[in-house]
């Protein structure tokens, strides 16, 4: 998230990102987090199930895009040609 660009408003992530230092950094940046807690957390935070369900749609999209071997193995050398094929593959979906 230190990369240039717009500041994030919400972070949708899986249980792998449920760490105190990550949550503290996001809280300092005023980023809303939708991260389910690991089982061993004593206090289980309440997450918005509807927003977390949107993460599943994004993962499904990436899964369908990776059916194109050219995208999964990244044959393209430049970012522009890779983005162009991502757009072509997206249209084919």
Please describe what this structure looks like.
It is a single chain. The protein is mainly alpha-helical. It is 48% helix and 6% strand. It contains four helices and two strands; from the N terminus they run βαβααα. The chain has helices spanning 20-28, 49-65, 69-73, 79-92, and strands at residues 10-12, 32-34. The protein has a two-stranded parallel ribbon with strand order 1-2. The two termini are 29 Å apart. The model has no long low-confidence stretch (mean pLDDT 85).
Question: Can you give me a brief rundown of this structure?
Answer:
This protein is mainly α and 93 residues long. Helix 1 links the parallel strand 1 and strand 2. The longest helix has 17 residues.
Provide the succession of SSEs.
Answer: EHEHHH
Give the biggest sheet.
2 strands, parallel
- Give the % helix: 40-55%
Overall residue-averaged pLDDT value = 85
Give me the number of helical elements. Answer: 4
- Strand portion, in percent? 5-15%
Content-based structural category: mainly alpha
Distance between termini? Answer: 29 Å
Oligomerization state: single chain
| Number of separate strands | 2
> Widest sheet: strand order?
1-2
3D shape: elongated
Radius of gyration: 17 Å
Brief descriptors of the model:
mainly alpha, 93 residues, 4 helices, two-stranded parallel ribbon, single chain
Mind sketching the topology for me?
Elements: E1 10-12, H1 20-28, E2 32-34, H2 49-65, H3 69-73, H4 79-92
Parallel strand pairs: 1-2
